[in-house]
Design brief:
3 domains; disordered N terminus; 31 strands; 11 helices; 6-stranded antiparallel sheet; Spore Coat Polysaccharide Biosynthesis Protein SpsA, Chain A
Length: 490
């Protein structure tokens, strides 16, 4: 029998898949600021928690490489800022110009991991999950890495505690003595009746979407089962562009090539086809208080509760109410005489749902999208790589924004064809370019930008800059921006 290499002989490459819009957690999660970047169970976002968990494998291995993060181009600065807050170094952010599901995303990561001639053990994880027992999580991954060093693919499975219909399932042999169980098949999200049947039979586990395998094994497997995805992704990879923010490389695969890649998930493209093939696939149990926080009901289940089973965040008052979740972000929200409700308030939208129907929030998001309403994508407060803006009032022929520009940051050099802008500095020092003039504005000073003026707002100081912007005109859409120079490549 071939000996399993010691873990300290393995280079571990964390891969964080940071896509998805988190539609079922609307209105807090939106495509412009999706759930993985939200703090739903502590002081760190789900993305930050994921990165920290994976890097903690360093205590059980000689070397853990800096994580490879795969995310959308529009989220690159959000991901970079959050990862730097954890003090984790990141060499590479792979930026998808368009979401093509997880199989192309992982193929990009594997090509990156192999680019320098190494063949690391990839530990692959979504970025939108929560884990209560970090030590148990680390032990399970340590075990999975040991199993995968012999060219196996190892996936983590969660023992179900109920007939959950929102997860895919893994069927294994019914044997509690083995540490890594052979996988018999993968099952898509079942009906409630089928999920109950799985629970009764045993040998079925929830698919956590976390797995371990060598980069070369993934590339061989995707090449065997979906050569169209491998070939198209490789072409896009070869035509990549790279630019650097401090020590982190933004890697953009060829846009046209990537958008033509057939979309498919890791499970459908490869893992489900591995069963019975030359690619041995096993499952390691994960008993660490795992949840993917896929809907508001899961957030309620994970949250601390009062004596009546209510979980609440923000300015909330509850009377004679039971087993409900209330999340307030900008005002007082009260509940009286209700039960089993989800109530989520933001500055521009309110969700009220029966807790058992929280999976269906995505239908509201789909409707908003079809009607081309901004609430599906953006909050009233919109984050940008240079800072943020908050629309505090608007009406016919006017819009008012609060704008904050980070230290040493700058908006693009731009102009508008349909609106003028009046900027008033509230605090900090603004450097303003207007056509051929450059000026410095201090607190309580202002400048008027006429329709058609080329203009740029910058903060060259070490303090934040806050201004009030009053727009007047006949159209205020973000597509009325003609950019001449933009350091963020928008």
């Amino acid at each position: 029998m071939k000996a399993i290499p010691k873990l300290n002989q393995v280079l571990i490459q964390p891969v964080i898949l940071c896509g998805g819009s988190g539609a079922r957690l609307w209105p807090i999660s939106r495509s412009g600021f999706p759930k993985q970047f939200l703090c739903l169970n502590g002081t760190q976002s789900l993305f930050q928690q994921t990165a920290v968990r994976l890097m903690d494998l360093a205590s059980a291995a000689s070397k853990v490489a800096n994580p490879i993060i795969v995310t959308g181009d529009e989220h690159r600065f959000l991901a970079l800022e959050q990862i730097r807050e954890t003090h984790i170094d990141v060499d590479t952010l792979l930026l998808e110009p368009e979401a093509r599901n997880t199989a192309p995303a992982l193929t990009l990561a594997a090509l990156t991991a192999r680019a320098n001639g190494q063949d690391p053990m990839m530990v692959v994880s979504p970025s939108d999950q929560a884990v209560k027992d970090e030590a148990a999580f680390s032990r399970a991954l340590h075990e999975a890495v040991l199993e995968a060093t012999d060219s196996n693919i190892v996936i983590l499975g969660i023992e179900p505690d109920g007939p959950e219909t929102g997860y895919g399932y893994i069927q294994t042999v019914v044997d509690v003595d083995q540490s890594a169980l052979p996988v018999k098949r993968f099952v898509e999200k079942p009906s409630a009746h089928t999920a109950q049947k799985y629970l009764s039979e045993g040998g079925y586990y929830w698919n956590a979407g976390i797995f371990v395998l060598r980069a070369s094994v993934w590339l061989r497997a995707i090449g065997q089962f979906r050569p169209d995805i491998l070939n198209a992704t490789t072409t896009a990879w070869k035509r990549r562009e790279v630019d650097v923010s401090q020590t982190t490389s933004f890697v953009r695969p060829g846009k046209v090539d990537y958008e033509g890649i057939p979309p498919d998930s890791i499970d459908c493209a490869v893992l489900e086809r591995c069963v019975g093939s030359e690619f041995a696939i096993k499952m390691v149990r994960l008993d660490a208080g795992w949840t993917d926080l896929g809907a508001w009901e899961a957030v309620w289940a994970l949250s601390p509760k009062d004596d009546s089973g209510n979980a609440h965040a923000g300015d909330v008052l509850v009377a004679d109410s039971h087993n409900s979740l209330v999340h307030s972000t900008s005002r007082l929200v009260t509940l009286v005489g209700v039960e089993n409700l989800i109530v989520v308030e933001t500055a521009d939208a309110v969700l009220v749902a029966n807790k058992s129907s929280s999976q269906n929030v995505k239908f509201i998001v789909n409707t908003l999208n079809r009607h081309k309403r901004d609430e599906h994508a953006y909050h009233r407060k919109v984050h940008r790589p240079w800072g943020w803006y908050d629309v505090i009032d608007e009406g016919e022929n006017f819009k008012v924004k609060r704008i904050q520009v980070k230290s040493k940051a700058s908006l693009s050099l731009q102009k508008h064809n349909h609106r003028s802008e009046h900027w008033v500095v509230v605090s900090g020092v603004a450097t303003v370019v207007r056509n051929d003039d450059e000026m410095t504005l201090n607190a309580n000073e202002s400048v008027y930008i006429h329709v058609g003026d080329k203009h740029q707002l910058s903060n060259k100081t070490s303090d934040s800059l806050k201004i009030i912007e009053v727009q007047t005109g006949d159209y205020f859409g973000e597509d009325d921006i003609i950019r001449y120079n933009d350091i963020y490549r928008r």
